[in-house]
Design brief:
alpha+beta; Pnp Oxidase, Chain A; 8-stranded antiparallel beta sheet; 8 strands
Length: 141
Amino acid sequence: MKMAEARRLEALPREESLRLLGSVSLGRLVFTHLALPAIRPVNHLVEGDQIIIRAYLGTAINTAVGNHSGIVVAYEADMIDPGSHLGWSVIIVGRASRLSDAAAIARYRQILQPWVTDGMDDVITIHADMVDGFRLVHGAA
């Protein structure tokens, strides 16, 4: 029986965590829907302290955000090698709100292409209030 290699977690600074988050296009959005936890895979982009996603009208996240600005959500993305189990993970906790600026919406519709082509008209921004990133690396804790 082969012994497992030692691994440990290294905390990442905020700037590095946001840079890594911006290096991938897929993440998982966690929010409350009908008083229960909900999670959806979405594509995103990162600009400064903002994570930007697009959503369909009438979807669970759109309903959760509603016309309110500032509903608390979590956003997670990672890049972990399935063989070595090394890599990184970043978790953001912040306030999600529907973007209302027409020029900004048009810009994000151009640069953030959803995987599905029908009706993703809303743009939701998540402000990265709390950023928690870590890297899984070789070595004992």
